[in-house]
Structure formats: C-alpha cells, structure tokens
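I am still getting used to backbone structure tokens and would like to learn alongside you. Would you supply a protein for us yourself, any chain you care to pick? Start from the sequence, derive the backbone structure tokens from it, and show both lines together. Go ahead whenever you are ready, and we will take it from there.
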Amino acid sequence: MEWILNNKEWLFSGIAIAIPIAIASWLIPSRRNKQIQKSGDNSTNIQIGGNFKVGGNKDD
C-alpha cells in the first residue's frame, strides 16, 4: 500500500494513457491483411501453421 502511495503519480498517469489507447484500438478497425480462403464446389480447404513444402527431400 505504501508503494502505491509513493508512486501514485506515474502509476495513474500510465493507466490514464493505457485506457484511451486500448479503447481506440478496439474502435478503429485493423488495417492488417485478413486471411480469406475461397474454394469451389466439392473442394476442401486445409490451413496449416508454418511452412508446407510439396515434394523435395525426406529430410527437409
């Protein structure tokens, strides 16, 4: 409790900055590329994490 009283100025100034930034990030849509998968009739989409290599050596 004493630590909070001694450091209340920088503690609450950090919170006062963090809250508006968090609210703005939730309200403003992200401009990052979103992944979109399109497929035709009777097809299966498979999503993997990392790199996928077709062919090549067994040791790759």
